[in-house]
Amino acid sequence: MGQTYERIEGRIRSFIEDQPVFFTATAPLAADGHVNLSPKGRKGTLAVIDELTLAYLDFGGSGAETIAHVRENGRITLMWCAFTGPPKVLRVHGQGEAVFRDDARWAEYIPYFEGADGAAARAVVVVRARRISDACGFAVPFMDYREERTQHAEHFGRRTDEEFAAYCEKKPHVGVSLDGLPALPLPLPARPDQPS
Questions:
Q1: Which of 1, 18, 4, 2 has its CA nearest to residue 132?
Q2: What is the number of alpha carbons within 13 Å of residue 76 lying toward its C-beta?
Q3: Please, which pLDDT band fits residue 1 given cuts at 50, 70 and 90?
Q4: How far, in Å, CA of 68 to CA of 26, rounded?
Q5: Which H/E stretch holds residue 36?
Q6: Which residues make Cβ contacts (< 8 Å) with residue 181, sequence separation at least 6?
Q7: I want to staple 123 with a disulfide (CB 3.0 to 4.6 A). Which of 15, 58, 64, 195 is the partner?
Q8: What is the pLDDT of residues 101-120, one digit of tens each?
Q9: Are the CB atoms for 95 and 130 separated by under 8 Å?
Q10: What tens digit of pLDDT does each residue of 124-143 get?
């Protein structure tokens, strides 16, 4: 039987921090807009900031639907599934905000990800929980975690920040979403935490 929780603490926080993958879901306000669902991984790129706040690094490599949706309406759901151990699905429904590289708060959030390879980080998505709940997860299969994929970090780690910014400008649906909403601000600001 599912439960709701007041805070991200104790076993709920441990469960979140132990999962190697999570999913984000967002949608525009338009009834005919595209719903977006994305898998997220890369060790060290999700942080529990406090009992009601999480944040994760948003990377280049695909479109920017999540950013466009949170810029428009803020609605976001994060979901984790237990692929090992006791069955569980955990969801955090919240209000999301994208903190871009030229935002003064970038310096506040980026230290949470010091252990992560931040190549191609273009925003920090901050999520303030409105509802925290779990479900049984009985239908989620057992799967074994083997290791992190390194291709993304390696690929973007070979590019300078200027090359990454140029890549973002050429990629479709980065500056504007599938539904025409403003997404990632372009030109991409330089990362203030990178050596010059």
A1: 4
A2: 28
A3: low
A4: 9
A5: strand 36-40
A6: 28, 68, 69, 71, 72
A7: 58
A8: 999 999 999 999 987 877 78
A9: yes
A10: 999 999 999 999 999 999 99
